[in-house]
Design goal:
Elements lengths: L1 H30 L42 H14 L5 E7 L17 H16 L6 E5 L2 H11 L10 E3 L17 H22 L11 E7 L1 H11 L17 E6 L5 E8 L19
Parallel strand pairs: 1-4, 2-3, 2-4
Antiparallel strand pairs: 1-5, 5-6
Length: 293
C-alpha cells in the first residue's frame, strides 16, 4: 500500500514537471526572436526598441546633416564624403553641473532666498575642488536665481575665470521638469508648475547639452551652476533614461555632476552629485528643518 502511494506521488511529480518543461520550452520557442539580451543576463524580457541608444539624440549626427547620396556616380560619392567629413565632430565636450549651496526658502520672492552660512561654506569647498582640478573653462553659465548667483560668486573667488564672461540664463531656473513616476506628496500643487516649467527646462537641455560643433578642434569644458531638479532632469535626458525618473536621483548642495559627450555622440556620466571633498558635517541635500516658512 505504501509503495503504491509513493508510486502515485512520483507519477504526479513527473507529470507536473513534464508539463512545466513543456510550457517553458514552448515560451522559449515562441519568443526566441524577440528576446535581445546579453549572454550573462538571465531575463526573458525583450529589449524595447525605445530602450536602444539613439545616435542622433541631439540632431547633430553628421549623416543627418548631409544630403544623402542621390546616385552611384563617383562625383556624387565624393560630394557626400566631403560634406560628411566637414560635418564630422573631432572634439569632446565636458559639462560640469554644480548645484547651489544650502539656502533659506523664506519670503515670497526669489531675492529673499539667500544662502545660509553653511551654503556659503559648501560653495567655497566646491570652488576649491574645481580649482584643484585645474580646468581651463571655455564657458560658464549660471541660473538667474539668487542662490545660484551667490554660489557662483563664491566659486569665482577660487577658480581662474573672468567674471565678465559669465552668462546668465533664465532657462536654468529651478522648476518641476516633468511629471515624475514617483508621485510628489504635493503633486496637485506642482502639476501646474510642471506645465509651465517643462518647456523651459527642456530648452535648457537642448541649448547646452549636445556634442561639439564640427569647427571645434579642442576638447572643451563648460561649467553650469544650477539647481537639483534641473540637473537631475538633464542627467536622465543625456543618458537617454526615462526623464520621468528624475525624482529618484538625489544630489547634495554644492555637489558636482560631470557629463562627457564624445564626438560619436555617446554620453558618459563621470560623477553624479560628487561631494566627497566636503567634511561630513557640510553634507546636506534638503532645506534646513529648523526654519519655519
Amino acid at each position: 500500500m505504501v509503495a503504491w502511494k509513493n508510486l502515485r506521488k512520483l507519477s504526479s511529480l513527473a507529470v507536473g514537471t513534464g508539463a512545466g518543461l513543456t510550457v517553458y520550452f514552448y515560451k522559449r520557442l515562441r519568443h526566441s526572436d524577440s528576446i535581445v539580451q546579453n549572454s550573462w543576463v538571465f531575463s526573458e524580457i525583450p529589449l524595447d526598441k525605445v530602450g536602444k541608444w539613439d545616435t542622433n539624440w541631439d540632431y547633430r549626427d553628421p549623416k543627418s546633416c548631409v544630403t544623402p547620396i542621390k546616385d552611384d556616380t563617383p562625383q556624387e560619392k565624393n560630394r557626400y564624403n566631403n560634406e560628411l567629413d566637414k560635418m564630422s565632430v573631432k572634439a569632446t565636450r565636458h559639462i560640469v553641473l554644480v548645484r547651489h549651496g544650502q539656502f533659506l526658502d523664506v519670503g515670497e520672492h526669489d531675492k529673499d532666498h539667500h544662502l545660509t552660512e553653511l551654503g556659503r561654506l559648501q560653495a567655497k569647498y566646491t570652488g576649491k575642488r574645481l580649482q584643484e582640478l585645474a580646468i581651463k573653462w571655455d564657458e560658464i553659465i549660471v541660473s538667474t536665481m539668487t542662490r545660484a548667483q551667490e554660489t557662483s560668486e563664491i566659486i569665482f573667488k577660487e577658480i581662474e575665470y573672468e567674471p565678465q564672461k559669465v552668462k546668465y540664463c533664465d532657462f536654468l531656473r529651478e522648476g518641476v521638469p516633468i511629471s515624475p513616476d514617483t508621485p510628489l506628496l504635493k503633486w496637485r500643487v506642482f502639476k501646474m508648475r510642471c506645465l509651465q516649467d517643462h518647456a523651459r527646462i527642456e530648452a535648457a537641455f537642448t541649448r547646452y547639452i549636445h556634442r561639439a560643433s564640427p569647427e571645434q578642434n579642442h576638447d572643451s569644458y563648460t561649467l553650469i551652476v544650477a539647481h537639483a531638479n534641473v540637473i537631475r532632469y538633464i542627467v536622465c535626458r543625456a543618458l537617454q533614461l526615462s526623464p520621468e525618473t528624475w525624482l529618484r536621483l538625489n544630489i547634495n548642495h554644492g555637489s558636482i555632476t560631470w557629463l562627457t559627450i564624445n564626438p560619436s555622440g555617446n554620453v558618459s556620466l563621470q560623477h553624479l552629485g560628487e561631494s566627497g571633498y566636503m567634511p561630513k558635517n557640510c553634507l546636506t541635500s534638503h532645506l534646513p528643518r529648523d526654519v519655519k516658512k
